[in-house]
Structures are given as structure tokens and as C-alpha cells.
Amino acid sequence: MKQFITITLIIVLIVVFGLRVKNDWQRYRLLKQEVQQLELKNQNLSEEEQRLERLKETGSQEELLEEEARTMLGLQKVGEKVVLVLPTTENETTTTIATTTHHQVSHLIVRIQNFWYNLKAFFKP
To answer: Do 113 and 76 meet the contact criterion of CB atoms below 8 Å apart?
Structure first.
């Protein structure tokens, strides 16, 4: 009788242990698939982030180039005011020269702007 109970107990333990291993194996496979999907998603997001960073750098470079070109040519956008800031010195003659130069530059900018807008108006249909 003891042998029967022992064998029955061993069989029950093997069946329970086997079912537990089977459930754990299925869970392991599901988790492994989820990890692979998440790694793929992470890789895609990293690539997207790098693409957006390159786009951001390119955009900021284009904006800087546009701003520099507009500053050099004295052009302005609608509603924008162009201001030239000249360095000041403590020497009064230099300040006078800078003021005179500032006025000359301002007149030059106005002339270039007028020329540009007249040129644009000439070619508009």
C-alpha cells in the first residue's frame, strides 16, 4: 500500500511539474516574442530620432544661412525691422564716423530694398 501511495504521489508530482514546465515554456516564448518586437520598435524609434535630429540640424543651418543672407543684403521679411548694431568706442570722432557710416549704410539698405522690391514687382505677372 505504501508503494502505491508513493508511486501515485510521484506520478502526481511529475504531472504537476510537467504542466508547470509547459506553462513556463509557453510564457517564455511569448515574452521572447514581445522582447523581439520591443527591440525592433526601439530600433525604429532610434532611427526616427536620428532622422529628426539630422532634419533639425539641416533646418537650423538653412535658417541661419537665410538670416545671414538677408542681413548681408539688407532684406527683411514683412513686419520685420532690420537693425544694424555698430560697436561703440569712447573716442568721439570714432562715434561720429560710426554714426555717419550708420546713416550711409541705412541709406544703402533702403536703396537695395527699393531696388529688390521694384525688381520683384517688375517680374510679377
So the answer is: yes
